[in-house]
Amino acid sequence: MSKIHGQATIRFNGQVYETDDDASLMPGGLKNNDRMTGRKFFHNQTYVSSEIVCKIPVTKEVSIKQFQEMTGVEITFQSDTGTTYVIDGAVQTGDVKLSGGADGGKIELTFKGPPAEEMFV
Asked: Taking the model in full, what pTM does it have?
């Protein structure tokens, strides 16, 4: 039986952070864009940035301000399936918000950068 993606481990410049189950990765790179003109189909290609969205538990050791200001970060996105992607030179682009409540104590982060490189082990 084959395993499907559930959790990811995110590594930022040597620090390791476990994420919630809903961590997502858009690897970036070439993207096909389509267009119909009348009954004719056309397409072109553009380059898009990679994007990682994840939630990280906040403990005493986690500085929210540090995450907000992160630039030039090397991120390793390792799925629990064993698949690994590396983004070098990522920046945190989203609003950093600390959530509370029953499922709280987490910050949601959005990193964007150049296209992710898939690593084969």
From this structure: 0.82
